[in-house]
Amino acid sequence: MNIYDFTVKDATGQDVSMKEYQGKVLLIVNTATGCGLTPQYAGLQELYDTYKDQGFEILDFPCNQFANQAPGSDDEIKSFCETRFGVTFKIFHKIDVNGDNADPLFNFLKKEQGGMLGSNIKWNFTKFLVNKHGQVVKRFAPTDVPEKIENDIKKLLAE
User: Fold this and answer.
1) How do residues 84-142 score in pLDDT, each as one tens digit?
2) Residue 62 domain-assigned?
């Protein structure tokens, strides 16, 4: 099993097969618009601008599970990200990442890369790096800034 076995909803409610991302390096992130870490959007966009033409994608999944820091609708969140941070990478439907209603993709990501903090996601901006074969290769903590991930992205793009 890999991430290509999943279908998720985009910010407009349309189904998106993860197969659309086959052969690409992915950074999958649970985000929030009202978090102290929200400025990471700028660094994420910088990574995207630098590597998108080499087969890199960022998949943004807003989540309101942590201190209600993503309270807006999908449209409001998308508008905020585009206006405030110039985000051009894909923003998906707001989801839960933990608990009974956790999105199946995030259950898979957590299972594949439990990380040193255990399997549950502890906060906004937890990041999962996926190689071109759909395998989850690394998990980054919320406080790991996007710049810290760049070398790992470059290595995977070169494979």
Assistant:
1) 999 999 999 999 999 999 999 999 999 888 754 458 899 999 999 999 999 999 999 99
2) yes
Asked if residue 3 belongs to a domain, the reply is: no
Q: What is the pLDDT of residues 24-62, one digit of tens each?
A: 999 999 999 999 999 999 999 999 999 999 999 999 999
Strand partners, 138: 129
Is 102 part of a structural domain of the chain?
yes
CA distance 125 to 136: 16
pTM of the model: 0.94
63 is catalytic: no
**CATH at residue 85:** 3.40.30.10
Question: What is the number of alpha carbons within 13 Å of residue 156 lying toward its C-beta?
Answer: 24
Catalytic position from the list 25, 35, 129, 153: 35
**Total of domains in the chain:** 1
Token pair 């601008």 is at which residue?
49
